[in-house]
Amino acid sequence: MINKSIEKELLNLENRYWEAIKTKDFEKALALSDDPCLVVGPGGVESIDKEKFRGMMQSATHSLRNFELKDIEARELADGVAVLAYKAHEELTVDGKPVEVNAAHSSTWIRRNGRWTCALHTASLAGDPFGRDRRAA
Predict the structure, then answer these.
(1) What's the rounded mean pLDDT across residues 33-41?
(2) At 64, phi and psi to the nearest 5?
(3) By residue range, what is the domain housing residue 14?
(4) Is residue 62 part of a domain?
(5) Quick check: pTM over 0.85?
(6) Domain count, the chain
(7) CATH number of domain containing 65
(8) What is the mean pLDDT of residues 64-81?
C-alpha cells in the first residue's frame, strides 16, 4: 500500500523527468536521477553515473516529441523507498524518422537528504512476451 500523497509526488517527478527529456533539459533529468542509476531495457543493463548520462543525452540520435503515461501503479516498499510502474506511449524521432513506441516502465525511487531520486528505471517494449511479434534483423 502506498500513501496517496507519495504516489502523487512520485508521479509528478516521473512526469517532470519525461518532460525534461522531451525539452532536452538534461540537467533537470540528472537532478532527478540517483548517481549512479541502474537502467534496464531492450538495450541491456547499465549502471549510469551523471557524466555518462550527460554524454548519452548530448550525443543521442533520437528525441522525444510527446509522451503519455497511464495505468499507474505505485507501492511503498520501505520508508523512503517506493516503486512506480506504468504504461507509456512515446512519440519519438529516431534517426530523423517518426517512431511510436508502447512500453511498460517502472522506476524505483529513493529518498536521500529529503528528496526523491530514481535509483532504477526499467523499460519493456509492449508486445508478445516471447518476441514472436518481432522479425529477426
Answers:
(1) 96
(2) -90, 120
(3) 4-125
(4) yes
(5) yes
(6) 1
(7) 3.10.450.50
(8) 95
